[in-house]
């Protein structure tokens, strides 16, 4: 792979993926790519540069990125199923008939055409039906009798006697009749005949007898299930993966059915397919939720029946990798998806480590055991057969990012080298026949022949003819006969002893076997109980997992809601903070403005006060001058008494004018009624509020001699003859909330009854107002 700028020559890359292997004993994993057709309106992210090179254009936030990938062969969307089969699967099928193993798997994003490539449709059969049809087209005439070769349930095969094979065939006819009846009653049709194009293999050995065995398994949520297991009813039982005597991995107890025609194989496939976990997702209406393996095993028996040869072809339809954000899976589907992605990740890790070991000569442990998928195919990666992969690509823009990952994996896989597979005949076991028969002397066990030998008493007793004419000769013949009989008797005794010994030995063994069987039975019983318990625990755990998943989902959704609320609150807080800051700024501005205004006003007030003081001083001076003049006039009256009243008035007139002028100019002068300087004879009774507010005015009521009381308690408080003036001070808030002080003044006049009355004749009102209050004067006023 190489990342291109727009101008790079794409053909440069074709040399990058060198297929040549330096080690002739190893072959790289062959990776093919198949592009799915796109609807016309959709845009493609893949461009084909040559039959082996393609460019993937991925657009991201950073920009456009072009990557080239080289494969063994790329099938365009116009390539048919036959072309794919002939290129990819036919060589593996030829290997299979030669007794070699092969693994073919499809890999890609969900909905990219993996199942279509492997299975196809009846009119457009995929790899699997074509393999089956081609196989039976080729070996149909060279098949062994059914049940002659039988699975030993431990990944091996054994040959059984003809009678046993016959019995099994009869049994099968019986059960298949019952089965057909059940199917007919249930209305099910398990037949699905894929179109057969008559392709044949040329490498069939006509001297051999062939038997084809089919098994079909799936790995769902990292557990292996047998899709052909009829015993487990509707709920499939989990199977375990084991290692056989030759260290090959196999599914323990898997049902392996011998098929004699392609139709039989398709029937089995359809039965399994109905059990396979499929599901509807947003991206594929019929999405495989498990990895399924369709296993074809071809067993060849040499004509002389001395050796067996077994080849295996595993066709694996991997579940598609999927991003949960795109599929929007939840609950069960989410669990399936994560299990699928995990197992694909394990496959990737194993291949990466294998490659690293091969490239760097490292010896890292390949973690096959991390997943059932990798454990089951461990042998293939370690040299038990050829490995081929078809990478399926849906070139739509939406799949681009996931395709990038798939192509990266595919590219890496091509670097992994697998030791070349070998075909070999292996000696087989003979299954002990249930009943020894005369027709099959070869099936007699060695034990039986040995017993026969034990009970033979030696050569036959010769017939003896006595010659009456020669008694001497007769005696000799009888002697030898006696000797022979004696020897036979001795031999019989020896044989009897041997028999007794063997009988004893056999009994001992039988007893031993019986004990073993009793022990095994009890062990099986306890294992069954344990299994039952484990199953129960498993069920409980599954329920717990589902519950936890549900609560997890609930928590996630409430978490999302809370996050939304937090976000909304955060936005509100931000807005409020902004508003607070704005308000603060405005307040500060207003404060500054106010300070400026108050400074200006205080300056104005100071100025006014200064002017007022000057005017008052001037008025005082005028008054003093007037008084001085009045004094002078009075003095001159007493001394000369010649001056007329007009003269005095004329003299006083200018001062009165000054006072009048001051009044008209707005200067607050005390009215003649409110003179502050009183004669020394005025004594005031000042009647205050209980806690009067300090006036704090410049002009204070002038009461030089006074007695202040807050409450008139007795009559003498008023009738005191020394007091002649009364002043009542009242304070209250006016309509504008400002403090208003009123001084009600009057004369205390004694009454003829010895009491006193107050004659109010003046009200003085003091009001203090805020300078900012524009409609009222800011100075205390007197009324
Ligand atoms: N090359 C093709 N030509 C025509 N139709 C195709 C092709 N590839 C896929 N399809 C169609 O696209 C749909 C999805 O394909 P398919 O089920 O094989 O995808 P998948 O990769 O197996 O998906 P999943 O991983 O979800 O099982 C099917 O309806 C199939 O018929």
From TrEMBL:
<dbReference type="GO" id="GO:0051256">
    <property type="term" value="P:mitotic spindle midzone assembly"/>
</dbReference>
<dbReference type="InterPro" id="IPR027640">
    <property type="entry name" value="Kinesin-like_fam"/>
</dbReference>
<comment type="similarity">
    <text>Belongs to the TRAFAC class myosin-kinesin ATPase superfamily. Kinesin family.</text>
</comment>
<dbReference type="Pfam" id="PF00225">
    <property type="entry name" value="Kinesin"/>
</dbReference>
<keyword id="KW-0206">Cytoskeleton</keyword>
<feature type="domain" description="Kinesin motor">
    <location>
        <begin position="28"/>
        <end position="416"/>
    </location>
</feature>
<keyword id="KW-0963">Cytoplasm</keyword>
<keyword id="KW-0505">Motor protein</keyword>
<dbReference type="InterPro" id="IPR032384">
    <property type="entry name" value="Kif23_Arf-bd"/>
</dbReference>
<dbReference type="GO" id="GO:0005874">
    <property type="term" value="C:microtubule"/>
</dbReference>
<keyword id="KW-0547">Nucleotide-binding</keyword>
<dbReference type="GO" id="GO:0003777">
    <property type="term" value="F:microtubule motor activity"/>
</dbReference>
<dbReference type="InterPro" id="IPR019821">
    <property type="entry name" value="Kinesin_motor_CS"/>
</dbReference>
<dbReference type="InterPro" id="IPR001752">
    <property type="entry name" value="Kinesin_motor_dom"/>
</dbReference>
<dbReference type="GO" id="GO:0016887">
    <property type="term" value="F:ATP hydrolysis activity"/>
</dbReference>
<dbReference type="GO" id="GO:0005524">
    <property type="term" value="F:ATP binding"/>
</dbReference>
<feature type="coiled-coil region">
    <location>
        <begin position="524"/>
        <end position="622"/>
    </location>
</feature>
<dbReference type="GO" id="GO:0005634">
    <property type="term" value="C:nucleus"/>
</dbReference>
<dbReference type="InterPro" id="IPR027417">
    <property type="entry name" value="P-loop_NTPase"/>
</dbReference>
<dbReference type="Pfam" id="PF16540">
    <property type="entry name" value="MKLP1_Arf_bdg"/>
</dbReference>
<feature type="region of interest" description="Disordered">
    <location>
        <begin position="1"/>
        <end position="27"/>
    </location>
</feature>
<feature type="binding site">
    <location>
        <begin position="108"/>
        <end position="115"/>
    </location>
    <ligand>
        <name>ATP</name>
    </ligand>
</feature>
<dbReference type="InterPro" id="IPR036961">
    <property type="entry name" value="Kinesin_motor_dom_sf"/>
</dbReference>
<feature type="compositionally biased region" description="Low complexity">
    <location>
        <begin position="10"/>
        <end position="23"/>
    </location>
</feature>
<dbReference type="GO" id="GO:0007018">
    <property type="term" value="P:microtubule-based movement"/>
</dbReference>
<dbReference type="InterPro" id="IPR038105">
    <property type="entry name" value="Kif23_Arf-bd_sf"/>
</dbReference>
<protein>
    <recommendedName>
        <fullName>Kinesin-like protein</fullName>
    </recommendedName>
</protein>
<keyword id="KW-0493">Microtubule</keyword>
<keyword id="KW-0175">Coiled coil</keyword>
<dbReference type="GO" id="GO:0008017">
    <property type="term" value="F:microtubule binding"/>
</dbReference>
<feature type="region of interest" description="Disordered">
    <location>
        <begin position="427"/>
        <end position="447"/>
    </location>
</feature>
<dbReference type="GO" id="GO:0005871">
    <property type="term" value="C:kinesin complex"/>
</dbReference>
<keyword id="KW-0067">ATP-binding</keyword>
């Amino acid at each position: 792979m190489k990342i291109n700028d727009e101008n790079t020559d794409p053909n440069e890359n074709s040399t990058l993926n060198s297929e040549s292997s330096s080690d002739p004993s190893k072959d790289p994993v062959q990776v093919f790519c198949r592009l799915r057709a796109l609807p016309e309106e959709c845009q493609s992210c893949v461009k084909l540069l040559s039959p082996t090179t393609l460019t993937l254009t991925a657009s991201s936030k950073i920009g456009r990125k072009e990557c080239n990938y080289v494969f063994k062969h790329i099938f365009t969307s116009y390539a048919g199923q036959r072309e794919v089969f002939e290129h990819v699967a036919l060589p593996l099928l030829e290997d299979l008939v030669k007794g070699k193993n092969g693994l073919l798997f499809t890999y890609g994003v969900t909905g990219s055409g993996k199942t279509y490539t492997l299975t196809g449709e009846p009119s457009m059969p995929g790899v699997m039906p074509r393999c089956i049809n081609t196989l039976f087209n080729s070996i149909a005439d060279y098949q062994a009798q059914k049940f002659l070769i039988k699975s030993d349930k431990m990944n091996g095969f054994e040959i059984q006697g003809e009678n046993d094979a016959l019995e099994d065939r009869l049994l099968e006819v019986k059960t298949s009749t019952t089965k057909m009846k059940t199917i007919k009653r249930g209305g099910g049709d398990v037949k699905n005949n894929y179109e057969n194009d008559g392709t044949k293999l040329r490498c069939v050995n006509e001297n051999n007898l062939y038997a084809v065995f089919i098994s079909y398994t799936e790995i769902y949520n990292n557990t292996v299930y047998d899709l052909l297991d009829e015993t487990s009813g509707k709920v499939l039982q989990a199977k375990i993966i084991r290692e056989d005597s030759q260290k090959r991995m196999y599914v323990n107890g898997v049902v392996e059915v011998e098929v004699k025609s392609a139709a039989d194989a398709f029937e089995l496939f359809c039965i399994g397919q109905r059990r396979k976990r499929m599901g509807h997702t947003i991206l594929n209406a019929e999405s495989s939720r498990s990895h399924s393996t369709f296993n074809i095993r071809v067993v060849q028996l040499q004509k002389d029946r001395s050796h067996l040869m077994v080849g295996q072809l595993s066709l694996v339809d991997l579940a598609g990798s999927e991003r949960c954000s795109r599929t929007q899976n939840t609950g069960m589907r989410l669990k399936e998806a994560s299990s699928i992605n995990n197992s694909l990740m394990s496959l990737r890790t194993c291949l990466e480590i294998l490659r690293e070991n091969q490239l760097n000569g490292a010896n890292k442990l390949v973690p096959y055991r991390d997943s059932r998928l990798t454990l089951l195919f461990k042998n293939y990666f370690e040299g038990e057969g050829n490995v081929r992969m078809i990478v399926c690509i849906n070139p739509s823009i939406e799949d681009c990012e996931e395709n990038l990952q798939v192509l990266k994996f595919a590219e890496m896989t091509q670097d992994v080298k697998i030791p070349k597979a070998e075909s070999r005949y292996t000696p087989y076991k003979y299954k002990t026949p249930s009943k020894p028969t005369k027709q099959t002397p070869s099936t007699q066990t060695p034990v039986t022949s040995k017993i026969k030998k034990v009970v033979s008493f030696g050569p036959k007793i010769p017939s003896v003819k006595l010659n009456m004419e020669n008694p001497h000769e007769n005696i000799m013949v009888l002697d030898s006969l006696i000797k022979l009989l004696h020897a036979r008797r001795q031999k019989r005794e020896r044989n009897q002893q041997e028999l007794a010994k063997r009988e004893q030995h056999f009994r001992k063994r039988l007893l031993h076997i019986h004990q073993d069987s009793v022990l095994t039975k009890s062990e099986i019983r306890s294992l069954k109980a344990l299994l039952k318990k484990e199953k129960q625990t498993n069920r409980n755990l599954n329920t717990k997992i589902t519950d936890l998943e549900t609560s997890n989902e609930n928590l996630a959704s409430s978490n999302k809601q809370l996050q939304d609320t937090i976000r909304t609150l955060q936005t509100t807080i931000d807005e409020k903070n902004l508003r607070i800051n704005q308000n603060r700024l405005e307040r500060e501005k207003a404060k500054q403005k106010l300070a400026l205004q108050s400074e200006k006003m205080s300056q104005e007030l100071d100025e006014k006060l200064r002017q007022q003081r000057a005017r008052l001083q001037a008025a005082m001076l005028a008054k003093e001058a007037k008084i001085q003049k009045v004094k002078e006039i009075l003095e001159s009256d007493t001394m000369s008494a010649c001056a007329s009243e007009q003269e005095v008035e004329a003299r006083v007139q200018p001062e009165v004018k000054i006072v009048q002028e001051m009044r008209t100019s707005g200067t607050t002068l005390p009215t003649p009624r409110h003179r502050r300087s009183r004669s020394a004879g005025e004594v005031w009774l000042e009647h205050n509020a209980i806690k009067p507010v300090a006036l704090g005015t410049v002009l204070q009521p002038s009461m030089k001699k006074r007695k202040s009381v807050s409450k008139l308690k007795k009559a003498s408080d008023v009738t005191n003859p020394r007091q002649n003036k009364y002043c009542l001070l009242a304070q209250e808030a006016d309509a504008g909330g400002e403090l208003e002080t009123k001084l009600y003044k009057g004369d205390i006049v004694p009454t003829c009854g010895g009491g006193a009355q107050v004659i109010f004749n003046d009200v003085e009102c003091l009001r203090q107002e805020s300078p900012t209050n524009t409609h009222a004067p800011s100075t205390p006023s007197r009324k």
